[in-house]
Structures are given as C-alpha cells and as structure tokens.
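Wed. Picked up where I left off yesterday with Class I SAM-dependent DNA methyltransferase. The coffee machine is broken again, so keeping this brief.
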Amino acid sequence: MTDSADSIVSLYTRHAAAYDRQRGRKLMEARWLDRFLSLLPAAPSVLDIGCGMGEPIARHLIERGCAVTGIDSSAPLIALCRDRFPQQDWLVGDMRELALGRRLDGLIAWDSFFHLTPDDQRRMFPRFRNHASDGAALLFTSGPAHGEAIGSFEGERLYHGSLDPAEYRALLAANGFAVLEHMVEDPDCGGHTIWLSHRTT
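Structure written out below (tokens, as returned):
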C-alpha cells in the first residue's frame, strides 16, 4: 500500500478540478468546527493542514474571524484558495515537512492527516506541538482503528491509514495535548472519526 500512499500528492494535484467540483459545501462539520472555535481566543490564528481548496472548512473559519494559514501539497488547490480568499496565507507544501517557525492558536487537519501512513502520522505529532501555542486546540480526523484502507477517486487508488485510538491518545499526551472529545464514526458527521484536543504543556 506504500505506493498508494506515495501517490496522494500527485493524485490531488492532477485531479484538483474534479475534487473542487465534488467536495460538498454543505457543512456537516459545523458542530465540531464551532466546538473547536469555542476554545480559541478572539480573532485567532488557525493552521489548516491539508486545506484543499479552502471550502467549506477554511471558509467557515474565515467567516468567523480567524486568520487562516492553509497548507496543501496540491498547487492547483492552493491557487483556488488564493483566488477565493486572498487576504489569508496559503502555502504549497507537504505536511510531513511542516516547519513554519511559528505557533498558532488552533490547528486543524480534517480529511487530510488520514492520508498519511501510520509511521508518517506518528511523526506528525511533534510537528503539531511545534506549531501550537499554549492552550491551542487541535482538531483532526482519523480512522476508527489501526490499519490501512484503499478507496477510489477519479478511478485511482486513494490511500487511508490509521493508528489505534490508544496510540493516538498516547501520542497526544506525549506531545502535551489533552483529549477533550473523541467520536468514532460520528453518525451526524458523515461517519467521521474525530479527535479534539488542546495543548496543556
């Protein structure tokens, strides 16, 4: 499955227009996003990791007063972000190499982090910590259990990976985050498995 994981960057670059067309704009994530926002200060800085084309997640954050920095490996998707939300900060880059040299009030990795292999996911947690200010919130989606799965997008293999919930908890704790909410396959949010935590140390 490693080949499928390695092809994620290329897939979302080549099929950016199709993803933009197909990504739903109905915000089933609103409850989780608003819970995330409730943990942040006024006019917060938020890092959207794997931001895609900025809709609907970044749009929701921007409309609620967030200063968004978005990073995605797909240059065409980032170009759409820059067109739609020119006042925000949009970067082309691989989250596995994330190193902005600054800390933000909130971090979100919705439907992006789970495209990494389990080993790459493990290596992300120190990067989360290095970009999180004291008390920062971290919201991400994962799989429900340890394993790898292959879906399909535009007729190509679409990789997903996940750790065991106990390992996510351990990695969060080891990097100074406390779990606030965890929902496995939330029926009110399209079956997403969701983690909401905040930095405590």
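Quick read: The radius of gyration is 16 Å.
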